[in-house]
């Protein structure tokens, strides 16, 4: 599944007058043998696309819930190769695009070109690399382009206007609007200016704008979605799956339609 697959699903959601919902899960948490089952469950529950984390020992952008999931996954022996091999098995009957989220280190260890090529083979549509600064994108863009994988950029609340403009112009797949200052993890509320911030991003972004970090209730989903194209939810979903509460995950995803 190529980059274009992401454009198609977001367009479908928009044409239906709905908002996108992208759940994040940590590959290997709960056993790699259950990964494809979880992906299927999220797709059947109405996910627009799925963000799949590859665990890394020093996840600087992650809060406690995702850090813990990463440790569980690493302890279970999860590797880059094993994750890609596993998702490749169902690439032809997967209806929802997959986006990989990981850090630079595992990719450099694997080799950038080899990684991009393996992602293409596994049917991956996009990549999120939170520790890749705009100035260093040259390290990966050529390989990602060659293998038709979108580089999904993150905009911080604290990004300068010039930086925001540069990120919005280059955006592909979707533009990830980080809604809090800090790491991933559930939050009770958002800053007052969040609506204006998201609307301003949406006005200049080439790709759809999705809000993520701290989104953890159906109310948050509705609140933030009104200002942009949808949301990304990680910690709440990782925690619910860990506790075996699939219903909570399904209810959260269902809240994108209103
Ligand atoms: O967990 P939260 O607060 O719902 O945030 C989303 C997030 O988990 C997911 O998109 C993600 C997990 N790790 C990341 C690192 C950087 C950017 C994004 C992520």
Q: Which SSEs are present, and which pair or pack?
A:
Layout (H helix, E strand, L loop, with lengths): L2 H13 L4 E7 L8 H10 L5 E4 L10 H12 L4 H9 L9 E4 L2 H7 L1 H10 L2 E5 L12 H6 L3 E3 L1 E2 L5 H10 L4 E4 L15 H11 L4 E4 L5 H8 L4 E4 L1 H9 L2 H9 L4
Parallel strand pairs: 1-2, 1-9, 2-3, 3-4, 4-5, 6-7, 7-8, 8-9
This protein binds indole-3-glycerol phosphate.
The site of indole-3-glycerol phosphate has 20 residues, from β2, β9 and α11.
Describe this structure in words.
The chain is an alpha/beta fold and 258 residues long. It has a single domain (3-152, 216-254), classed as TIM Barrel (Alpha-Beta Barrel). 44% of the residues lie in helices and 14% in strands. The chain has helices at residues 3-15, 35-44, 64-75, 80-88, 104-110, 112-121, 141-146, 161-170, 194-204, 218-225, 235-243, 246-254; strands at residues 20-26, 50-53, 98-101, 124-128, 150-152, 154-155, 175-178, 209-212, 230-233. A 9-stranded parallel sheet has the order 5-4-3-2-1-9-8-7-6. The longest helix has 13 residues, at 3-15. The chain is globular. The two termini are 29 Å apart. Indole-3-glycerol phosphate (IGP) binds next to β2, β9 and α11.
């Amino acid at each position: 599944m190529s980059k274009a697959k992401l454009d198609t699903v977001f367009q479908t959601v928009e044409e239906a007058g709905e908002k996108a919902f992208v759940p994040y899960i940590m590959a290997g948490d709960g056993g790699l043998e259950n990964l494809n089952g979880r992906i299927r469950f999220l797709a059947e529950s109405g996910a627009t696309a799925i963000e799949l984390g590859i665990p890394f020992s020093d996840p600087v952008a992650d809060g406690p819930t995702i850090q813990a999931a990463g440790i569980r996954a690493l302890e279970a022996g999860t590797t880059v190769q094993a994750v890609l091999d596993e998702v490749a098995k169902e690439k032809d009957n997967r209806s929802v695009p997959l986006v990989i989220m990981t850090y630079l280190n595992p990719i450099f260890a694997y080799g950038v070109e080899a990684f991009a090529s393996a992602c293409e083979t596994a049917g991956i549509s996009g990549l999120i690399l939170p520790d890749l600064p705009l100035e260093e994108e040259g390290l990966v863009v050529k390989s990602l382009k060659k293998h038709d994988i979108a580089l999904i950029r993150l905009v911080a609340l604290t990004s300068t206007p010039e930086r925001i403009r540069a990120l919005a112009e280059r955006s592909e797949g979707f533009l990830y609007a980080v809604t809090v200052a800090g790491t991933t993890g559930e939050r009770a509320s958002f800053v007052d200016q969040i609506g204006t911030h998201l609307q301003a991003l949406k006005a200049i972004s080439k790709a759809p704008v999705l809000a993520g970090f701290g989104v953890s209730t159906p109310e948050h989903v509705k609140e933030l979605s009104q200002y942009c194209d949808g949301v990304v939810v990680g910690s709440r979903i990782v925690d619910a799956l860990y506790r075996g509460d699939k219903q909570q995950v399904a209810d959260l995803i269902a809240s994108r339609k209103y």
